[in-house]
Amino acid sequence: MAAVPLLLLLRAGGSCRRHRRLLTASSSSSCSAGGGRAAERGERPDSAGLGFSPPAHSHNDWIGPPDKHSNLRPVIFYVPPEESPLERRLREARQEAQACNQRFWARHNCAFRQEKEEFIYSRLKAKGLEMRDEKGQKATLNAEEMADFYKDFLSKNFRKHMQYNRDWYKRNFTITFLMGQVALARALRWLRWKKKNVER
């Protein structure tokens, strides 16, 4: 599995940085592989079904290729062996936010594509045209006609978008707050370690 250049992510807790690796899409067989098969191949079991599998020995977060439904890049978060309860809360909050984003945009994009096709079909039918022209190419509408669809779609989904934005801000506030707590806990832990070494 090939990896493209690394993207540095500033970790909560000072100057320590964690690498986030960007992956290319893997074969379709890896999408259906279960946790047991992933473990046999030396990959993380939590990657099953995501379309990419970082190696089990990696100590980094891994960013995968865009999901074909949501267009979002899935992230598999690294779980350190000595993860504190507070660090676990932060990781789980990030995972929950990612899952919610994935569900919302997958449904949103599916509805958008379906309603767009129905709109184009209805407009072409009203003109007495088929979905494909004489050359077999897919017929389209001009920009002004499509503007009617975009305006109607946004208006119809306005409440959904507002609710999503509210939830998004709430989740990000929680994540930011937890990041601050984790940063403080790590700083205090480092100071205690430094003081202990000086006393020796």
Automatic annotation (TrEMBL):
Primary site of residence: mitochondrion
Location(s), subcellular: Mitochondrion inner membrane
BP terms from Gene Ontology: intrinsic apoptotic signaling pathway
GO cellular component: mitochondrial inner membrane
Gene from which this protein is expressed: LOC113994171
Chain positions covered by the region annotation Disordered: 27-60
Family: Belongs to the COA8 family.
Protein name as annotated: Cytochrome c oxidase assembly factor 8 isoform X1
Pfam families documented for this protein: COA8 (PF10231)
Keyword Membrane: yes
Alphabetic keyword roster: Membrane, Mitochondrion, Mitochondrion inner membrane, Transit peptide
Topology versus the membrane: Peripheral membrane protein
Domain of life according to the entry: Eukaryota
Keyword DNA-binding carried by entry: no
Taxonomic lineage of the native organism: Eukaryota, Metazoa, Chordata, Craniata, Vertebrata
